[in-house]
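Input/output pair, single chain:
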Amino acid sequence: MGTLCRPRNVLYLIYRRRCHQGRFVQEKGGGAERTYRTTILPETRTYPKSGLLRNKPQAWRTPVSAAVRLMHAVRQGETVMNVFDRKTKRKQKNWASSRPDHADFDYLRDEVAFRLADRVCDVSRKFPVALDLGCGKGYISKYLNQDIVETLYQCDTAEKMLEHATNRPSEVPTLTFQADEEFIPFKDSSLDLVMSCLSLHWVNDLPGCLRQVWSALKPDGCFIGVMFGGDTLFELRCSLQLAETEREGGFAPHVSPFTDVRDLGNLLTRAGYTMLTMDTDELTVNFPSMYELMADLQGMGESNASWARKSILHRDTMMAAAAVYKDMYGNEDGTIPATFQLLYMIGWKPHKSQPKPAKRGSATASFGDLSSTSSGQNKPT
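Output:
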C-alpha cells in the first residue's frame, strides 16, 4: 500500500482508514502491479462530524470528488509518484512572495506568460469560462482581454501569491481561490479553457492532473500549458554534480527532475486529448556568477523541493561549483548562461465537430502512382 502515495493530505488519511476497516482488499499480484477491490461492510456506521459516511446499510460512501481522487491510482493500476514535497514548495512560494523585492524576480514568469497568452490569442474562439491553474501572482491575466476570455478563475497553492494575483489589474473579471493542482475542485465539463504557466513541473501525479483537467473541460474544450523541460538548468546541474563528487565523493540531486517532451506527449495522449500541438523553446539568461542565479531561483520560489534533496551544501563545494560553471559554460564577457527549456502543449477534449482522420483504405491514389507520374513528366519528349 505504501507505493500508492504518502500521507501528505487528508484524503490519504481517509484512504488509509478505509484500508484498516477492510474497504480495500488485495486481489492479486504484488509490487506496482497489485490491484484492489472494494468491499461493502454489512453493519451501518456513521461519522456525524465529518459527514464522510452515510447512514445506509448497503454501502459506505465518501464525497464523489474525494472518492474519485482516492481510488484514481488504484483503478488505473498505477503507482503515484511522490517526488516533491508539496508542503515545502508551498512554504517556499509564500516566502518568496512575502519579500519586499518580490517583483524583481518576476521577469522569467512574465516573459513566459506573455508567450503563453500569445498562443491563447492565436485560437480563433472566445472562451466563456477559463481557469489559470497554478496562477502564481496572476501573470497571464494581464495579457488577456474580454474578447478572448469572459470569466477567469485563478488558483494556486500559495495564499501569499494569491494576494498579489487579486490586486493585479486585469481587463478580464477574475475569481481567485486557493487550490492544489493535484486536486482540481471543478465539476466535469464545466470549463472551456484551462491554462497553466510554469506550475506543473512541481506536480507529483502529473498523469492524474492532466486527466482531471480533461474531465473538467467541456467537450471541444482546450488545454494550453507550458512547463520546464529536461534541459532546464543543465549547466547548474552538471557543475554541482562535478564539484560535489570531487569534494565529497558523491552527489545529491540539487536540481529537480523535469519532464521530457516525448514523455509529455505520451501523457497527453493517454489522458484522452486530441489534436495535440507540442513545441519547445529556450530562454537563456546571463548572470554575473552562479550565486546570483541561485539567489534569483530562491526569489522566484523555485528552490529544490524534492524529497531526496540535501539539507546543506558546503561552502567549499559551492565555490568549486561556481568555478566549474564559469570554466565550462562561461561567456567571453565573464558572465554565465542559465538555460530554461520550455515545453508548450495544446490539447483538446474530443468532440464530434472536430476534424477526424480518413478511414483506413479510403485513399484513391498511392505514393507509387505519384512517383511514376512525376518520373514520366520528367522524361524528354
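The CA atoms of residues 113 and 140 lie 5 Å apart. The chain is about 35% helix and 20% strand.
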